[in-house]
Amino acid sequence: MAQLTCENLSLGYEGKSIVQNLSFTVNAGDYLCIVGENGSGKSTLMKTILGLLKPMEGSVTTGDGLAAREIGYLPQQTVVQRDFPASVREVVMSGFQGSCGLRPFYTRAEKRRAEENMEKMGITDLADRCYRELSGGQQQRALLARALCATKKMLLLDEPVAGLDPMVTSEMYALIKSLNREGITIIMISHDVDAALKFATHILHIGDEIFFGTRQKFTQTRMGMGFSTLRGLKK
Amino acid sequence: MTDIFSQLAYYFQYDIVRYALIVGVLIALCSSLLGVTLVLKRFSFIGDGLSHVAFGAMAVAGVTGLTNNMIIVMPVTVGCAVLLLATGRNTKIKGDAAVAMISVGALAFGYLIMNKFPTSGNVSGDVCTSLFGSYSILSLSTETVIICTVLSIIVVALFVIFYNKIFAVTFDESFARATGTRAGVYNLIIAVIIAVIIVLGMNFVGSLLISALIIFPALSAMRVFKSFRSVTVCSACLSVVCTALGIVISLLAKTPVGATIVAVDILAFGVFSLIGAIKGRG
């Protein structure tokens, strides 16, 4: 059984649908890249998967031992966070909030896991630093560590490299790939088709034409060809 | 110097003076706790807005002639707080506009009623008291002190219990929601707590100045400290110290209590900004 199954989704807001009849599945260990132009409904799809929005039609179901609330999420940064006084440790710990329920404080085991996740992201020495004083890449690592606290199985990343310089971008991609190798399913929303073709196992293209399939198949389609030629032109 | 101390000692013989200090410190403590959250959520002005609502409700309560006007003031203010904070971002009128609308509306309505149905001969005196707090903080009854103490303990307890949740919801609401935190419920709790604090604080510093109690300690603490916990602790301590100092000064210098406290808060903000600037450079 797939970890995530979307069936006949129609997405949109205020009664206007932007994507119809979207169906795809994500299995454990997959690396799915969702690509598409601005306004094609990538963010709406993401919010629907996370359960923040209700689909206009169709359904999103989780399975294979994954509960709906166990998807770790790396959001795009908000304005509020830019001057928020919080230490990296506090930010990372807040990833456990969902599993806390009504319990007011964090357990020792959770604190240990938070330290492990910071270690994994290479930000242990930043734990007591103020989140707003970090560089963009460091902030993303902190948020990624937080997402890891919320999940052991699936990560949903919304434009994880937006605003990062090329060097940090490739580090970030390597980090995500290493998480994927450890068995965490990755769903990434991206503008960056290059990266999608390089790292992903599956591609979902939404927009006028919907495509879902493996990376190999995508490169054979007209769309994939189009992207390849575009890349050719750029280089 | 000994003069000042003997004068203070003289004042503190009286229960009412001690009551004023207790109530003041408690209100200062409570109001500073949520300040950080409100400032960060861009709701600094909610204190102002809600206190005007409380002012309007108080005018209505005065006309109805109820002995305990809390019965009307508290539910109305809580209702408005919920309306403003908990309905989220999907409303047609956005946060700051909604606050401004409710605030000004309630102010006008309250003043209208106070003028039309005056409860005492001195309407402008009444209005002034509601807006800037009373000189007669020294007229607190034992009952008020007990209510204040109980509510303050509840507020502080709720804040401690929900501290981590409030942090999560303030820092990143959509992440919290996505990972299963019931953000709506916690926004509601924040709204109710803030309304209770405002109604409590109104008698004390008045409805125009209550915002100062809520935001100044938080802003001062944010100049210097870097983590959410240290900012919260610092703003609570700072608020208590400033308020106690303000009350003492107002007793000695015979200045209005509310305005004196706010002046001390502003002074503290200046000092903390300076410290922050020096630390930032060093």
Describe this structure in words.
The complex is a heterodimer of chains A (235) and B (282). With 235 residues, chain A is an alpha/beta fold. Helices cover 40% and strands 23% of the residues of chain A. Chain A contains ten helices and nine strands. Chain A has helices at 42-50, 79-82, 88-93, 97-100, 108-120, 136-150, 166-181, 193-199, 215-220, 222-234, and strands spanning 4-13, 16-26, 31-35, 57-62, 71-74, 154-158, 185-189, 202-205, 211-214. A six-stranded mixed beta sheet of chain A has the order 5-6-7-3-8-9, sandwiched between helices. In chain A, a hairpin with a 5-residue loop joins strand 8 (202-205) and strand 9 (211-214). In chain A, helix 5 (108-120) crosses helix 6. The model of chain A has no long low-confidence stretch (mean pLDDT 84). With 282 residues, chain B is mainly alpha-helical. Chain B has a single domain, classed as ABC transporter involved in vitamin B12 uptake, BtuC, CATH 1.10.3470.10. Helix content of chain B is 81%, strand content 0%. Chain B has 13 helices and no strands. Chain B has helices spanning 2-11, 15-40, 46-64, 70-86, 95-116, 123-132, 142-161, 163-171, 173-178, 183-205, 210-224, 228-253, 257-281. The longest helix of chain B is centred in the first third of the chain and has 26 residues, at 15-40. Chain B starts with a helix and ends with a helix. The relative contact order of chain B is 0.16. The model of chain B has no long low-confidence stretch (mean pLDDT 82). The chains are: A alpha/beta (235), B mainly alpha (282). The interface between A and B is medium-sized, with 38 and 31 residues.
